[in-house]
Amino acid sequence: MDTREKDIEKLKDYKYGFTTDIENIKAPKGLNEDVIKFISNIKKEPQWMLDFRLKAYERLKLLKEPNWQKPKYPKIDYQDLYYYSAPKSMKDKPKSLDELDPKLLETYKKLGIPLQEQARLNGIAVDAVFDSVSVATTFKGELTKHGIIFCSMSEAIQNHPDLVKKYLGTVIPVTDHFFATLNSAVFTDGSFVYIPEGVKCPMELSTYFRINASETGQFERTLIIADKGSYVSYLEGCTAPMRDENQLHAANVELIALDDAEIKYSTVQNWYPGDENGKGGIYNFVTKRGLCKGNNSKISWTQVETGSAITWKYPSCILKGDNSIGEFYSIAITNNHQKADTGTKMIHLGKNTKSKIISKGISAGYSDMTYRGLVDINSKAKNSSNYTQCDSLLMGNKCGAHTVPYIKNKNFDSNIAHEATTSKISEEQLHYCQQRGLNPEEAVGLIVNGFCKEVLQQLPMEFAVEAQKLVGISLEGSVG
Amino acid sequence: MSEQLQSDFDKIVKNSKFSNKEIQLKKDFLNKFIESGFPNRKQEDWKFLDISQIIKKNISDLSYFIDYSQSNKIDLSTFVDGLEHNKIIFLNGRIEKIDFNHEDQNKIEISDETKKDISFDYENSLIDLNSAFTDKVFKILVKKNYSLKKPLIIYHSTNDSIKSTNINLRLDFELGENSCLKLIDYFANNITKNFINIFYNFDLKKDSILKNYKIDKFRNDNLTYSFNNIEQGNNSVSETFILSAGSDYLKNEINCNLNGEYSSAFINGVFSLKENQQHEIRTTINHLVENTKSYQLIKSVLGKNSKSAYQGRIFVNSKAQKTDGYQLSKAILLDETSEFNAKPELEIYADDVKCSHGSASGSLDENSIFYLMSRGLNYQQSKELLINGFLLDVVEKITDLEIKNLIKNIIGLNEYK
Fold first, then answer.
1. Is any Cβ of chain A less than 8 angstroms from the Cβ of B360?
2. Among residues A11, A280, A365, B346, which one has the fewest Cβ atoms lying within 10 Å of its Cβ?
3. How far apart are CA A186 and CA A2, in angstroms?
4. In this structure, are residues A305 and A273 in contact, taking their beta carbons and an 8 Å threshold?
5. Which helix (H) or strand (E) holds B287?
6. Mapping DSSP to helix (H, G, I), strand (E, B) and coil, where does residue B98 land?
């Protein structure tokens, strides 16, 4: 078998493992001021945006990569990455779907996301990200009617500079940690959502991420603003083609909820986790943070993490407004040599703030999973409360499950309750299911789905079905 | 700081009868300590209470010199009444007396070695400091099949002649097969600001039982760090109770290795803190083989400006199937300036285990207070009753009846204001 054939064989293992052959425009390899100017220039950005990036870059020079996390990874050479690549056809922006590069559309078809049909059938407006530039946005008309802005970040910078200027970097400042600052300096595109005062978004907004082009780090930037009394539910789902080199993904997601507003952010993450020997796979180092800025606001994170070689992220809530609510529901599944270090931070600043954390971790094979969370109740956050539950399930004795919660209570009016358990699937449960005709894998699938039920319930319909299947698929081959 | 350390060290060496080999060993430890300095908040284990800052704030000119050639006058009034016991008197940084009057002398062996190496891996510069400056390391061996008739009380005290000084103590205990030792650490009333650094090493052989009660009750200005390393063989049991209430700063650290099957470790702790006190308990339980068990219960009552931290870690090796690990920490915050921090950690590599932890913190339940007041108690009484009930729960876990009563007496029932 020649190498090409071997490669094709390898690709077959991973359903979504293929690449689209589109000629890419690439920034020169490496990270320096010129590359940042190049990115800014090619996106025709105004001066203030360039200044924002350069400020972040200046700061980045002083920062060191953090190394306190559990999963260690080989050192990343940041000078050996491309920081910008875009499908060539983006040079002249398409006006409608028909104008899109047919190869792009083909890619989505393979992924099982026929753009138009899916949008029409599900009533979802899809802002698909191919590589680093958003290529298609549908259902714009319906959204515009309500005054909702749902577009790519680059468009928002051009068309809504006031909003972007006002909110970008207010939750994740350019002076944040290493990966967030790196993103601030070199982010290429992402989604921008603005829900005007009093509007309940009539549909679930959704972005499908797609990583393409070898050696391209993905630096997405998402900004969601829910103005007073508004509501939005946002879905993010990912699949990625197979790669041999590890790919870095360092996205920033900022959510801002003003008075009485609610944002629900759901993620299903199924990026390439590497093969069964732990070779390849995506590094998912994402910074997600929500700010409950106004009184009575609410932010809810739901995530199903099954992919990536290394997942390292903590979707957080800063509960600044009085009576604000933060929620975090998570399922993280690791198999083979996958590693995950994930959890949340709930920072209570306002009075009567409430937060709830439900985390379910499942590890199998040789994988390692860590829940790491912080609950910090400030001395001014009178009468606040937190409830945390994190359960882990272990399959086999080659894997690990860890829980590292940090609990800080500086307010005597406030209550914090934390519970964690670690166990395995009991023989009795398996026996019971098998007795009734399920094979061992189905039995495990059923039990695990039950274990995750509390989180799966939080997902919007469209995701819940997909996620349930995903939970089953992720654990294939881990029983017996 | 390093010049001070060096010159004080030289002074101690000049006054001592250490052999050259011992001096060299101590020097190595000293250099290691000078290199790393006092631990600070950048280190994960010291995140909540930064000892280097606390020392800086409380003791401006910490001295390391103790004249080990001078003996001290023992104040008999500090001894515990109403309980027959064996004594070790540790006064002003010097072990003045080791007294096993109540025991069969053939069954206990006491040896002193100054050239003690450390047999386990650690990343703790305070152990280096301890090893560089301790005078004598006494080793107490309880022979096979012998249970001490009376408990052993170690009196930790200082008097006015010593101030702003670093005091180090190291003791090694070996409990032979099927033996039993009850050990009480009693921190007597000290007023002077000293930094006390205690390091115990316990080696528990098959079927042996260790009960260690640490009583820090009387208000004093000292900063204390205590580290227990416990190695446990098959079917051995260790029980540790910590009453953390007296010192300005107190950190109790326990590292317990469950090396033998069916061994178990129990750690119970009470924080009862007032004005500006900052206390911490940090535990690491390593379940290394099958069928081991650990249980931890820590409760805090925190008054004005006080701060407590609990860091508990349960580690389960991939070989340690059928492990049972449990951790619970609860805190009552009485004032808006009090602060409670917890980091209950699980690190698990085996699948057939039962491990859980819980943590809860909040204020006193107003409904309960209302209930008691409606039955005729005043507000203060109701509050005291609730707090006492809350803490008594931990004291009740003490398995030795005599010592339980002693501790109940020491705590008293009406002292939370």
1. yes
2. A11
3. 39
4. no
5. strand B278-287
6. strand
B-chain CB neighbours of A403 within 8 Å are: 344-346, 357
Q: Contact at 8 Å (CB) between B114 and B22?
A: yes
Confidence of residue A8 (pLDDT cuts 50, 70, 90): very low
Report the mean per-residue pLDDT for chain B. Answer: 88
Locate the chain B residue with the closest alpha carbon to A396.
B351
The SS3 assignment for B315 reads: strand
User: Amino acid identity of A5?
Assistant: E
Residue A428: which residues within 8 A CB-CB, separation 6 or more?
A: none
pLDDT of residue A132: 40
Structure tokens given for B203: 């080696």
Radius of gyration of chain B (CA): 21
Q: Residue A408: its chain B contacts at CB < 8 A?
A: 339-341
CA dist B341 and B50 (Å) reads: 13
Amino acid (1-letter code) at residue A238: C
SS3 at position A285:
coil
Asked if A406 and B347 come within 8 Å (Cβ–Cβ), the reply is: no
Q: Note whether A381 contacts B: Cβ–Cβ < 8 A.
A: no
Q: Where are the beta strands (DSSP E) in A27-101?
A: 85-87
Strands A24-26 and A85-87: antiparallel
B343: contact with A, CB 8 A cutoff: yes
Whether A455 has a pLDDT exceeding 80, the answer reads yes
Q: What are phi and psi of A410, to 5 degrees?
A: -115, 15
Least confident of A116-120, B2-6, B177-181: A116-120
**Global pTM value:** 0.83
**Tens of pLDDT, residues A191-238:** 899 999 999 988 888 765 434 433 345 788 899 999 999 999 998 865
Alpha-carbon gap, residue B170 to B168, rounded angstroms: 7
Residues of B in contact with A419 (CB under 8 A): 356-358
| pLDDT above 50: residue B266 | yes
Interface predicted TM-score (ipTM): 0.83
Answer whether B400's CB lies under 8 Å from B412's CB.
Answer: no
Q: Which residue is closest to A414 within chain B, CA to CA?
A: B362
Distance between CA atoms of A201 and A224, rounded to whole angstroms? 12
Q: Average pLDDT, stretch A251-278?
A: 87
